[in-house]
Design brief:
single chain, 340 residues, alpha/beta, UDP-N-acetylmuramoyl-L-alanine:D-glutamate ligase, nine-stranded mixed β-sheet, four-stranded mixed β-sheet, 9 helices, Ribokinase-like, Carbohydrate kinase PfkB domain-containing protein
């Protein structure tokens, strides 16, 4: 089913059986397509500090605030949203071997995702801490407050190997889309595994989607270590300023349409680009494919909307829209689901 509406309009951000947000969007009426996700899986501690601005902290402080520990990571976060849209969701990541391992596997079962995890014996699971501070109340344009994300150095996911990816080839080949992200590029080992997965997918006719994170990847890797993955992708999701900095386009950092010819020169083929932009690089998106601007649309993010998890909800919606032929205006076609 091709749609001229934006992903935020159809299928919307509520999934098949999500809670009605009151925006008048009906969402999807059936789960379709199979998705295979490769990315990080671990434990994350999250806390929002409504009374603390990081810039004001100049001494030790005790504060009581909402805090929780959850199973998270790029693969789990997307899968949690994707199971509300897609018929089948598989997750491949490398995890550790400790008391959190059964907790992680239980969470995948709970959300309805297929477990393709690989375990590294004798190694603890990766742990991250996400803190979000209070916005600067003196400035109305500061958004939800600064986020501090502390990630364990060299978590198990950085050691996912090409051999482990090949052992999961059947799941990749059976999927309608392989979804990957840039954290796997941060290690030579997992980078090779990521390229292997993308080539397995392309050889099997499985589409490849790539989320260009972390958002400061340009400060962590040279462009020539990122471009090969962009060239393997059929769909790329990215904050526009991230791509502009990575590709050395100063003008495009502030004007998203200046980025489009830069992308055409840097990356061969006709991937569909979903470029996030706005005050916090999440308020708007531009869908673009070589030889034609597809559409610009508001994502639905703004004041009063919880930021944590919003990007994954939006990405799941965009993936369903894309596979359903939503990009047909620029030559995209709906995918025929591979299994009934």
């Amino acid at each position: 089913m091709a749609s001229s509406r934006s992903p935020a309009e159809w299928p919307g951000l509520n999934g098949v059986d999500g809670v009605d947000s009151g925006d008048g969007v009906d969402g999807v009426d059936e789960r379709r397509f199979d998705v295979f996700v490769i990315g990080d899986v671990g434990i994350e501690v999250r806390a929002t500090l409504p009374d603390v601005r990081f810039a004001e902290v100049d001494a030790d402080r005790l504060t009581y605030a909402p805090a929780r520990a959850i199973v998270a990571g790029t693969a789990v976060n997307l899968a949690r949203c994707a199971t509300r849209y897609f018929r089948r969701v598989g997750v491949l990541g490398k995890i550790g071997d400790d008391d959190f391992t059964p907790v992680i596997r239980r969470e995948l079962r709970r959300i309805g995702a297929d477990d393709h995890l690989r375990v590294e014996p004798g190694i603890p699971n990766g742990v991250s801490v996400m803190l979000r501070g209070r916005p600067d109340g003196r400035r109305p344009d500061t958004g939800p407050g600064v986020r501090l994300l502390v990630v364990q150095e060299e978590p198990p996911g950085r050691r996912l190997t090409a051999a482990e990816v090949r052992s999961a080839a059947a799941g990749i080949e059976a999927a309608d889309v392989l979804v990957t992200d840039g954290y796997s590029l941060l290690s030579p080992v997992s980078r090779t595994a990521l390229h292997t997965a993308a080539r397995i997918a392309r050889d099997a006719g499985t589409r490849v989607a790539f989320d260009l994170v972390p958002h400061d990847v340009d400060a962590r890797l040279p462009a020539d270590e990122v471009l090969p993955m962009l060239a393997l992708a059929d769909l790329v999701i990215s904050e526009a300023p991230t791509l502009a900095r990575l590709l050395g386009s100063a003008a495009a950092v502030h004007e998203v349409r200046e980025l489009l010819p830069v992308l055409d020169r840097a990356v061969p083929g006709r991937p569909l680009w979903l470029l996030r932009f706005g005050d916090t690089s999440l308020e708007h998106a531009l869908a673009y494919q070589r030889d034609g601007l597809l559409m610009e649309y508001p994502t639905g993010y703004g004041d009063g909307v919880e930021r944590a998890g919003f990007g994954d909800r939006l990405a799941a919606s965009e993936l369903y829209w894309w596979l359903s032929g939503g990009s047909s205006a620029s030559g995209g076609e709906a995918a025929a689901p591979r299994s009934a």
